[in-house]
């Protein structure tokens, strides 16, 4: 871009533009700073209010509590197991599907693609899905957290679009040399597809890590509740407390139950909630910026295909 | 079918094998529940199964069509979707345009990265945030009000505030992520167009309306198709978590109503009937909107 005289109108727009962007980004970041401060602050002191950016009475008690409490730890184990299994499984299975769909000349391809595409337009709904889970005996088991999350048509299309961009010549020459489809897939396509595999892994991983619904409505066994479901239980109790009392420390039955369940000792439920949020969110915040260039590019490729 | 067709299938046999797990999965998890829709037409009992349960015809459809709470729920759903469409749909586009105007590459990347932070965070966390900020006893805003000597307000229990809170939090959460696709489309616009316009003396608004927006039309159209056809989904996760007993008159949407009547009250057939109603209308909508889009702008999903 050549040198241009900036008019005063240009300058005003620039200032406005940067200000709004800055303010928006501040609102996106601030809540986490707030929660971070609260998580490192003594819970009873926090109840007095006035904590905005930094802890006033620093303590590691909340984190100690979170990392040693069996209920909390358990929910994290469930979430981690679920996320790892589903991410690896889904990425591999979806890649297999996407590769198959990308093979030109496959007889019946149009119908096959429609078979998968149609499911994005219409679905059975909640109750039929529930009945299905019941009939195949995955309700109230770990598998209800895994099996239904294995495939997503949108992810398959993103991968397929990427595979379409890999030069045909590479796989063709391998095939001519006698390589099997599986060989071509594993040795040629996959290694070249790391960006899209990483992107889909991120999407799947985040989706499954953040899913609170499945655990909440399809599993009664609290030992199998993932972290997001556990957090939901923690905050429903919180909102019940806010509604039934005007002070933060009422004698309501639910609060007492939480306190005895969690064996609190100088750690308030509220502080624990904040800590839990930080623990549950930090892995994602640490991972996604590194994959940013991949998923941004992925959308670019996808949008070109449109 | 000639033998060359059969030979082709044999040639691709491994590919069909690759497709097999996916086909099985979809048959089980996507297509079988569609068969389960029959429950809406039956007096379903678990022990009798879907086929064994007696027919009930359209009884449950009549039930919800005559149920006044159903219409309230439908009204709420459409209101929320409409508000999200009016205020929420343009937001990512505006953000993309603003990000695009940032000259420093590094700063732009930083703004971008931060802007999608809310997208990656669960609604449970976002609602925790909302509660934390708006709570009458431990919330941030009421804390400030208290310091100023004002009375606390229980924001999330006020029906009149529910829609604004829903729309604003939805925009906050989705605008960064939504802007990605617009930013990608913006990079595809030929810079020479802008240069030529400069030479012809076009100002910034002219460039915006005559070059930028028209170039973005395909992207906008596709996203609009998705948004319009999803009008009966008002955002289950968010709404369910944000509902309070006090706001139910405005916060009960189709999906939350289906869940409550089905999984909580056990009215399986009634719930399925409403679910079917919603799915069928959504399917009709997407076909209709796609058709209109194709006629009007030549952009469509298929």
From TrEMBL, chain B:
The keyword Nucleotide-binding is assigned to this record: no
A cellular component annotation (GO) from this entry: plasma membrane
InterPro entries per UniProt: MetI-like, MetI-like_sf, UgpAE/MalFG_permease
Record-annotated ABC transmembrane type-1 domain positions: 74-289
Topology class, membrane: Multi-pass membrane protein
Keyword Amino-acid biosynthesis annotated: no
UniProt-recorded name of the protein: Multiple sugar transport system permease
Organism: Paenibacillus barengoltzii G22
């Amino acid at each position: 871009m050549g040198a241009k005289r900036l008019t005063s109108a240009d300058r005003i727009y620039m200032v406005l533009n940067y200000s709004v962007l800055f303010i928006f980004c501040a609102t996106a970041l601030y809540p986490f700073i707030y929660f971070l401060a609260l998580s490192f602050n003594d819970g009873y002191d926090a109840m007095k209010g006035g904590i905005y950016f930094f802890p006033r009475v620093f303590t590691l008690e909340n984190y100690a509590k979170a990392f040693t409490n069996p209920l909390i730890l358990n929910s994290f184990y469930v979430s981690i197991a679920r996320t790892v299994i589903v991410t690896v499984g889904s990425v591999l299975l979806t890649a297999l599907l996407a590769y198959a769909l990308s093979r030109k000349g496959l007889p019946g391809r149009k119908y096959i693609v429609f078979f998968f595409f149609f499911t994005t337009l219409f679905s059975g709904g909640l109750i039929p899905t529930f009945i299905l889970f019941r009939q195949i005996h995955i309700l109230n088991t770990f598998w209800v957290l895994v099996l239904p999350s294995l495939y997503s048509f949108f992810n398959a299309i993103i991968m397929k679009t990427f595979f379409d961009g890999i030069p045909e010549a590479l796989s063709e020459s391998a095939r001519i040399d006698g390589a099997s489809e599986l060989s071509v897939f594993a040795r040629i396509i996959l290694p070249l597809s790391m960006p899209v595999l990483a992107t889909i892994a991120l999407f799947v991983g985040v989706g499954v890590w953040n899913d609170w619904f499945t655990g909440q409505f399809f599993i009664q066994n609290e030992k199998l509740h993932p972290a997001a479901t556990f957090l939901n239980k923690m905050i429903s109790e919180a909102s019940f407390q806010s509604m039934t009392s005007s002070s933060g420390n009422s004698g309501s039955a639910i609060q007492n139950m939480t306190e005895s369940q969690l064996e609190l000792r100088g750690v308030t439920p509220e502080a624990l909630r904040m800590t839990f949020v930080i623990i549950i969110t930090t892995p994602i915040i640490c991972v996604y910026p590194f994959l940013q260039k991949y998923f941004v590019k992925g959308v670019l490729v996808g949008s070109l295909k449109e | 079918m000639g033998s060359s067709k059969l030979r082709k299938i044999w040639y691709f046999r491994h590919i069909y094998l690759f497709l097999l797990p996916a086909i099985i999965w979809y048959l089980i998890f996507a297509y079988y529940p569609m068969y389960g829709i029959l429950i809406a037409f039956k007096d379903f009992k678990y022990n009798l199964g879907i086929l064994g349960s007696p027919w009930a015809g359209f009884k449950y459809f009549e039930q919800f069509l005559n149920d006044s709470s159903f219409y309230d729920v439908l009204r709420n759903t459409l209101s929320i979707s409409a508000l999200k469409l009016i205020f929420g749909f343009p937001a990512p586009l505006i953000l993309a345009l603003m990000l695009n105007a940032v000259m420093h590459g590094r700063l732009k990347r930083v703004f971008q990265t931060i802007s999608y932070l809310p997208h990656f965070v669960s609604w449970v966390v976002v609602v925790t945030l909302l509660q934390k900020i708006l709570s009458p006893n431990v919330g941030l805003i009421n804390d400030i009000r208290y310091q100023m000597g004002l009375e606390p307000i229980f924001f999330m229990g006020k029906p009149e505030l529910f829609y604004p809170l829903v729309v604003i939090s939805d925009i906050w959460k989705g605008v960064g992520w939504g802007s990605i696709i617009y930013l990608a489309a913006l990079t595809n616009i030929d810079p020479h167009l802008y240069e030529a316009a400069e030479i012809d003396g076009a100002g910034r608004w002219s460039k915006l309306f005559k070059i930028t927006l028209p170039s973005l039309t395909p992207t906008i159209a596709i996203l609009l198709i998705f948004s319009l056809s999803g009008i009966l989904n008002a955002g289950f996760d968010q709404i369910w978590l944000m509902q309070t007993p006090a706001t139910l008159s405005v916060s009960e949407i189709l999906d939350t109503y289906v869940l409550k009547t089905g999984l909580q009250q056990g009215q399986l057939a009634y719930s399925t009937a409403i679910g079917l109603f919603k799915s069928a209308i959504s399917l009709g909508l997407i076909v209709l909107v796609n058709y209109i889009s194709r006629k009007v702008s030549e952009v469509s999903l298929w």
